[in-house]
Design goal:
about 90 residues, alpha+beta, 4-stranded mixed beta sheet, 2 helices, about 25% strand
Length: about 90
Amino acid sequence: MEVTLDHTILPSYDHMASARWFASIFDLKEGKSDDQFAVVRVNHTLVLIFEKTEGSIAHNHYAFRVTVENFDNIFARISDGGFDHTSTPESAK
């Protein structure tokens, strides 16, 4: 049996805005949301669930494999949106 990651929950201070931003950057559709959770389907096997969080949020790393064309489109949306970005964790502030 192949094992695949079905979903993961991402803590967020503003779960709705976080899901909306992620979906817009990756050109995905937002799913259902409520007062606690906002859902984004990444592909046929993976769902990201943004959870409203009150406390501190630990640093996490998520890596997505995309084509060169998709990367260029995603990077353009990040750059055009004026979002801060770095190529290494050490350069993030």
